[in-house]
């Protein structure tokens, strides 16, 4: 996101906090698809996606008037979304964490950059474990910085990197098995 | 879920209506309680029951409004200014009514107590109104600053 886009986005949030109805409607229009994509990527139960997105919006509306740093809206809303998703996932998934580090992330990015349709990446992400998928989605699809992803996911930045590395590796294998090559 | 904000109960008119409902409910309950407590002679049982019922309804509406505003109708910057303005005005009217009744009935302890309560309500409402106005001004200043910055860039 460029500086201008960031300022425009902050302006939209501030206007919403003031109570300008058109700004709030625009904020919803912008974020509803993104939240739907994020939640849909994280939940295998597609029927639950709408419910979770609705829960997220309720939390957002309730807390938006008190948001003190409108410039950090993206990080804030993803944190809320993540909490709602984790509430759903907590009883379903228990994925062990590894911290293996290796190189060759660039090759995966090159492969990903070569794909014109990011929906293909979204579809391939479904092969990842939920925690890896979440990080991969935020970094590769939403272009969020690693530090912000660490804040959203409430883990150290090193853990974000290891999850991202693992996700990239699995993503490359998944894409290559589907016939996409560099 | 639709993306229309009206489906989230965010309409400004509805929020003002709920705020006004809460103030009116509280005013009715307070006024009736004041009248009841300052009656020089004991009231008949049916009148007491009627007063109690109406006070209960007023309190019920006030509680409903408070719950709705907390859980269903988020209050944004200018909504809070409007809502606390209504509450401040309502408190001033209540304090006025309490003063008139108290003066008319020779300031029995219950009337004095009610005047103190309404005055405290008024102080609280005005304090919250001041905070709401300050917050609204901050947001408007930030909005204008962002608009200027974007125009320059």
Structure in words:
The complex is a heterodimer of chains A (182) and B (153). With 182 residues, chain A is mainly α. Chain A is built from nine helices and no strands. Chain A has helices at 3-18, 21-42, 46-63, 73-89, 105-113, 118-125, 130-141, 146-153, 157-177. The longest helix of chain B has 44 residues, at 109-152. Chain B has four helices and no strands. The chains are: A mainly alpha (182), B mainly alpha (153). At the A-B interface, helix 1, helix 2 and helix 3 of A face helix 3 and helix 4 of B.
Give the tags.
heterodimer; B: 153 residues; mainly alpha; 4 helices; disordered N terminus
Helix-strand blueprint:
The complex is a heterodimer of chains A (182) and B (153).
Chain A: H1 3-18, H2 21-42, H3 46-63, H4 73-89, H5 105-113, H6 118-125, H7 130-141, H8 146-153, H9 157-177
Helix pairs in contact in A: 1-2, 2-3, 2-4, 3-4, 4-8, 5-9, 6-7, 7-9, 8-9
Chain B: H1 12-37, H2 45-71, H3 77-104, H4 109-152
- The string of secondary-structure elements of chain B, in order, is HHHH
Instruction: Average the pLDDT over all residues of chain B and give the rounded result.
Output: 84
Helical residue percent of chain B?
A: over 70%
How much strand of chain A?
under 5%
Secondary structure: number of strands of chain A = 0
How large, in whole angstroms, is the Cα Rg of chain A? 17 Å
Structural class per helix/strand content of chain B? mainly alpha
Low-confidence stretches of chain B: 1-8
Summarize the main sheet of chain B. none
Shape summary of chain B: elongated
The averaged pLDDT of chain A comes out at 80
What amount of the residues of chain B lies in strands? under 5%
Radius of gyration of chain B: 20 Å
Query: What is the number of helical segments of chain A per DSSP (H or I, 4+ residues)?
Result: 9
What is the makeup of the main sheet of chain A?
none
The most extensive interface, with participating residues per chain, is: A-B, 28 and 25 residues
The number of E-state strands of chain B comes to 0
State the shape of chain A. globular
């Amino acid at each position: 996101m460029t500086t201008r886009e960031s300022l425009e986005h902050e302006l939209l949030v501030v206007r919403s906090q003031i109570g300008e109805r058109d700004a709030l409607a625009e904020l919803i229009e912008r974020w509803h698809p993104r939240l739907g994509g994020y939640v849909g990527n994280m939940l295998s139960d597609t029927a639950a996606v709408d419910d979770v997105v609705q829960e997220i919006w309720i939390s957002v509306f309730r807390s938006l008037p008190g948001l003190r740093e409108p410039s950090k809206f993206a990080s804030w809303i993803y944190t809320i979304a993540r909490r709602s998703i984790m509430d759903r996932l907590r009883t379903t998934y228990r994925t062990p964490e590894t911290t293996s580090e290796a190189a060759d992330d660039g090759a995966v990015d090159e492969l990903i950059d070569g794909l014109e349709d990011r929906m293909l990446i979204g579809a391939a992400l479904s092969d990842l474990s939920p925690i890896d998928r979440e990080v991969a989605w935020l970094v590769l699809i939403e272009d969020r910085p690693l530090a912000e992803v660490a804040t959203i996911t409430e883990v150290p930045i090193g853990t974000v990197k290891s999850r991202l590395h693992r996700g990239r590796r699995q993503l490359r294998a998944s894409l290559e098995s589907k016939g996409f090559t560099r | 879920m639709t993306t229309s904000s009206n489906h989230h109960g965010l309409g400004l008119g509805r929020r003002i209506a709920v705020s006004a409902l809460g103030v009116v409910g509280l005013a009715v309950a307070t006024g009736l309680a004041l009248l009841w407590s300052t009656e020089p002679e004991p009231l008949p049982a049916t009148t007491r029951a009627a007063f109690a019922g109406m006070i209960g309804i007023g309190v019920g509406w006030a509680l409903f409004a408070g719950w709705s505003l907390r859980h269903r109708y988020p209050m944004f910057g200018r909504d809070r200014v409007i809502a606390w303005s209504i509450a401040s005005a309502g408190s001033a009217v209540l304090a006025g009514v309490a003063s008139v009744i108290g003066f008319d009935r020779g300031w029995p302890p219950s009337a004095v107590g009610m005047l103190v309560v309404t005055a405290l309500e008024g102080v609280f409402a005005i304090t919250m109104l001041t905070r709401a106005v300050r917050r609204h001004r901050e947001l408007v200043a930030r909005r204008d600053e962002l608009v200027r910055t974007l125009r320059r860039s």
